[in-house]
Batch of 2 targets.
Target 1
Amino acid sequence: MDPFQNRRWVIILIVLSISLIFSIRLLYIQVINKEWAKRAEQISYLKENLQPPRGFIYDRNKELLVGAENIYDIYVLPIKIKEEDSLKICEIFKLTIEELRNKIHLASSGYNAPYKPSVMFESLSKEEFAKISPLLSKVEALEGKVKTDRGYPLATGAHLLGYIRRISQQQLDGFRANGDLFYSKNDFIGITGLENIYEKELRGERGDANYLRDYAGNKVETLDKNPATPGKDIYTTIDGGLQQLGEVLMQNKIGSIVAIEPSSGELLCMVSSPSYDPSILTGKDFVKSYKLLKSNDSLKPLINRPVYNDNYRPGSIFKLVQSLIALQLGVINTNTSVVCDKSKIGCHNHEPPNTLEKAIKHSCNPYFLEVYKRLILSKSFDNYFEESRKGLKNWEEMVRTFGFGQPLGVDVPEEKGGFIPNVPFYDKWYGKKRWAFSTIYSNSIGEGEIGVSPIQMANLAAIIANKGYYYTPHLVRRVGEDKTSNLIRNKTCVDSSHFQAVIDAMHLVVESGTGRSAQIDSVKVCGKTGTVENKTFNDHSVFIAFAPKENPKIAISVYVEYGTWGSKWAAPISSVMMEYYLKKELSEKSKLKMDLIKEAIILNPKSDFTF
Amino acid sequence: MTFGYFTIYSSSYSGFLLNESFWDNSYGKQMVWIIISIVLGSIILLIEGSFIQNSSYVFYLIILILLITVLFMPAVKGAKSWFQFGGFSIQPSEFAKLGCSLAFARYLSLINTRTQNLKNRLTAGAIVMVPALLIMIQPDPGTMLVFIGFVFVLYREGLSGNFLLIGLFAVLIAVVGVFFKASGSFIEVANLTVSGNLFFGIILVIGFFVAFLIIKYFVLPRYRREKYIRLIVVSIVGISISLSVSFIYDNLFKERHRNRFQIMFGIKEDRKGDGYNIYQALSAIGSGETFGKGYLNGTLSNDKFKHVPEQNTDFIFCVLAEEWGFLGCFAFVCLYASILIRMIMIAERQRSKFTRIYGYCVTSILFFHFMINVGMVIGLAPVIGIPLPFFSKGGSAVLAFSLMISILLRLDAERKVVLR
């Protein structure tokens, strides 16, 4: 017999042991260790985010303020690049081989991977894309994807609309950390203005789709699809035409125009000057334009002055507030007469202010010094310092009911509130008992330490027009189909009965007083000029007004920096604005006025002049 | 009985392959090859066993000539392994296994051949080595490796078991050596930092020294001399292997090979480059989990997705693993093991020495294919291109394996005719 017969068992044993090892290994990979199954999912699933179109923004007449413009991003899929492609790509985009190599390296490292398409060129315009698209189809690794950027048919309201830009890594990480997974790289996000404050509504809701992909990343099978919900449109209270007119009037000037509909608090326009065409902050040139606006322009055109310039002193328009508070407290009445004593505070020559009406009409400074004195100091003269403290506290509280000294609640991001001087402030500044009425009297005529934003000034006009209350000014009426419920009525501390005298006086201001340049044919305008002292250059020109006198439709504030005095620039500007809004057109006279205003260049040669 | 057993298996396996690789072009071609295989297989079943036996050398010679001529053929994927005929191509190295098995069996079954005889051993070795070397030149290292399987046959026919042990030992040392080389690790011993490989070498020397001491003190004096000689041989072989591994690793291996080893030992994870194949393959297998995704429902290894490269040839096991899960794989492994064992039993029941040796040859070849292919796919062996018999796409392989099996069946059918 074969002596080696039993060796078969050794061989069988080897076969069995190998089989056993394989089985154990398979058991491990397939059943025990779930890691490989997870990796398989990563390999074969492709989750695609479906991006919703961003909502549009309309003005009060349903005119489109912000629409869409198609832009194109060029994506590259590094693993599909063939050798002969690189030359083609270089030719299409006019790159050197080195630059291309860098771009491909960027597209395959870090957050990007060679088997995933990533952006190589972003924000090509329609024309640029049309030029290269026939060439693009020859290179398999490249793909153009449409993205919608913002388009601005009216090219107006840059500040209030705000701008969007591609989300930064920091922001992205921030959102991720807060559990907001909406954004992905290269997405746009609202940075300022309405774009920012209504970001959540405008952006819509992302959809997603799950695919099975093949080795090259092609979608082979759709597993499920969950379409995106488009962003909601926003219907603003802005009058596009008025806004445009305001920007034209304010060109080559620094300042702002704010108009409010008193009966609702709706903001009709919010002009900040210098302004810029919002469309320059879109597309490929964003970075370039932004840099220009941000750091290469001493006039700081990016600042939305109506809201953020809250350190404007109101000047004489503040006399209206003083009068109303004084009437409410009964320290004066409409017939109070004061001598125009120029020893303490300067004034111009005018008829004696023997009534409140005349004092307002001529904007008599000594008169309001006396009014303020009566507000701050009671007649007892017991303790001068104590009296001043008490009086100021009381006064500050009353002034605050007019919406000063705190943000009004306008729907702009991070609204500023201005400043009404108060007891702690002076205590800190001068020290306790080291200040009294004689220290702070310049507040009486809206100078001193008072800081007010243009929107608060316009709101003052609206309060007077409404005889004692105001609706919180707002920019948005309707988001998508839902009406926003921001009609908040705020009451001032002054009874409505006291307003008539002030309104009559404001009418006189325009009829025959300091604000005659604000007259509009056949419309009764009530206004008040303000001239804010400026030590370095011309004084600032301020004007607030509302019209018509009965049943007012528009309240407005105009602030022109270095505008010399209130009636010189601010008053005519507001008349043109109000006339346009009330009559929908301008008379010949007003057109002339408009041309004059348009051509004026009012800049401070010492600090602002950049030409 | 066995006739039907294997025919059904071979065809059903092939049929299995068809469904698995459900793609027009290769599907059609494969079908043609299977039909050819069945037809030729059936014809072989009609041929007299002695004719097969007698024409072994002729067949072997033809194969050698083909293997030489194929070296002058244009290279496909870097290897000169194919004859192209229109749409079909033939890979002679697949048939070389068959030819080699026949010649090997023929030579060893000669009445005066003894495995204990050195000259006979060398001749038998040469029969295997010549085609193996020719295949190596192509180059096709995977197929070449299969020829190592003939060691099992020699073992069965009386080659000392020490050869197997030494082989195992050598493989072990080589694997550990490569591991240390690949990891490039440094080990700190008593403030001395030595490279892992040197450390391993020192351990080996110490091991031999300990073995020497054991022999000196525990083995009876009359056996000592013999054991010493063995120990010295083993030591020299061991150390020379470890040194040559080091040399080969540093000088002969290309970066690609080094990477593969590093990936295999889990020293390096490389999803994109050299580790891509195995990463994708393991993912596909892992995703099958216990019950699989169901027939044709694979999402990685399926032809539609192609996440696993070579998914219808070398990595076909992934398809099975993904679609049928662990249970399917386990059944497959059991099936393969039982076929191999069945073939050993068939070989063992022969009266003819030729048939027995031939049976073992076929078994060893199949076993090596199975071991290397599946081992590679599940990450236990380095990636080497080698098909899984009856599964992988490839006409020559199907035909060659079918012929091997049918010849074995034919010879088995005649087992009672032969006296010795």
Target 2
Amino acid sequence: MADERENYSPNLIRMWRAFRTTKEMCRDRGYEMLEEDYQISLSAFAAKCGRQDGEVDRSQMNFSCLPSAEMAKKYTAPPTAKNPDPQPDIGKIWVEFNGDENVGLKQLRDYMAHLVDGQYYSGVMVTMKPMTGMALRLLRGAAGIAEGPKGGVEVFVEQDLLVNITKHELVPTHVLLSKEEKDHLLKRYRLKETQLPRIQVTDPVAKYYGLRRGQVVKIIRHSETAGRYASYRWAI
Amino acid sequence: MPATQKQRDVALHHADIIEQRKRVEKDVLDAIIDLMDFPEARNADPQRPSPADALRFREAVAIFQPSDYDALIEERNIAAKCGYALCPRPKRKAPSAARKHFIDTSKGVEIVDRRVLEVWCCDDCARRALFVKVQLSEEPAWLRQGGFAGDIELMVENAGEHPRTLPLRLKGSSSAPPKPADVEEHDAALAWQARDDALADLAVERGEKPGRLSKANRELVQDKIRERVATKAPEPPSLPTHSSHMAIEGHVPRTSRNEDDDEDDDGQDWDKHLPG
């Protein structure tokens, strides 16, 4: 392995790791993904996205994926009398690796326009450096406005994706609950959702799973006495 | 605990304040998006901008804080434009791609970031842009009292062409109310109307626009005047009959009482009880 790495530039290895984490993130969220896709080897990655000069061609790294049937089911609200056939609140996702030195309002708006043109439901943008403050402000307000895609845009910095944080031993398992499971939980414990403990949507793990406000995650920890211990958190 | 109407009003008032803040932030964002591709004419001259451009720029920038203005400059630079919003030229290119550059200044050679070098197209634009920046108010626009950040001046060569437009102060519509039969009622109605007019004028003076959130919420702070009605004739205060002036809240301390009681106090009482 060490020998293999010496043949490639550090930048290419960085991008390979970020790419793998992004793929794993999409798989963990429930998108359809082949195993050879998220376990791509360095040499295969270099053949696919590397350029002659040993640097990375980021436009080759972009990909899109579709939600699996299981995920679509999880994101579908239970049918009601008013809405007997609810549509899933999830769809095709477009992941783009941006190669610009600085990402501002202009790039973000171009990206949003691209998502809307391509009929994508949501998007993930991976940038080299953190975005400008105004772009973040646009992003915060973008979920509700007509300009962006329905599912919103998430932005990650390459640096944050070098390591898959959910594989760390101190990070417990997070499982997203569907609307139906959430209702069941609240009924079982006779709670209102405001009585649950909270998790911020800006929490690194919440960002990894793309939690939305109002969803509930089940967190399963190891426990010395009970074997495992489940707690629930309301994303806010 | 059931929420009272008062609590509900307070909650609504604070929700309105947050709402207004969000609206102002959105206005700032829209203004920056608008000014990013400014000016539209390719051959616009930053030294003598057209009156329409200058007016639009001044109005958009009036709600900015200096940090918002910095954000605008940053966004324009990312789009490879000169940081001054009235200049259509691309930003200056540094002589090389090195991260730091040596620059000859009047104080000698300085080492500066490449990024700093590439903000403006020329030093003239930098001066004009910063001339605007120093006029911006540090106070966020949603906290400003009216007329505070009213007019932004531009550094232009053709100052005569730019009309100094003062905001027109419109009096409230003077639609005559139907004349009531009773004169007293008529006077009362007039008084109420005068009060409303005065409040509206005050609101305009505070810089509030009709339909926007009022800073003085009349529902929350109400001054009710309660007349004091005398039920009996006033009487002057008098000393209570049998309590000494040494009393502390009705209690007379022992030391002061002893002084009054022990009249047979003499210096020799220590040997009174001695035999013989």
